[in-house]
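User: Can you help me understand a structure? I only have the sequence.
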Amino acid sequence: MEVAWLRNEAVRLRREGASCGQIADHLQISRSRAHQLICEVLETLEGESITEGRQLRALEAERLDALQHGLWEAAVGGDMMAVDRVLRIMERRAKLLGLDSPAKYSATDPSGEEAVSGVVLVPAEMTLNQWVAEFGESAPELDTPELDSTPEPEPEN
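Assistant: Let's start by predicting it. Here is the structure, written out as tokens:
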């Protein structure tokens, strides 16, 4: 009985923003015991949450099954709206249960080709309009200059 009360008090105080040290002082227990009590409750809540999530997923799957069952005869009979609905139910079920393999996406350029990522440096002497006029949409191969550790002289005003 006392352990249950300690757990409830520890979690109540933690929920209110108290640190483990403050909880320990308030309940007159060690800091490690306060931490242990909070962890025990959180692990229990996590387990309940996982179980509840599984139960909700199962309930949603049963609902989808009932909907599909109601439409199945019409769908196999050729009713195109029923076929569409059944397919949407099947897509939803696959998403709910994680049946589809993960989709992979990659960046593409306007032509649909895989885009090359990187950084393009535009010389300061060129405006963007000049750059586009000269190079169009594709940049030429650029040589990267060696980095020089000596700073360039500042322009005089």
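Now, to help you interpret it: The two ends are 82 Å apart (CA to CA). The chain has five helices and no strands. Let me know which part you'd like to focus on.
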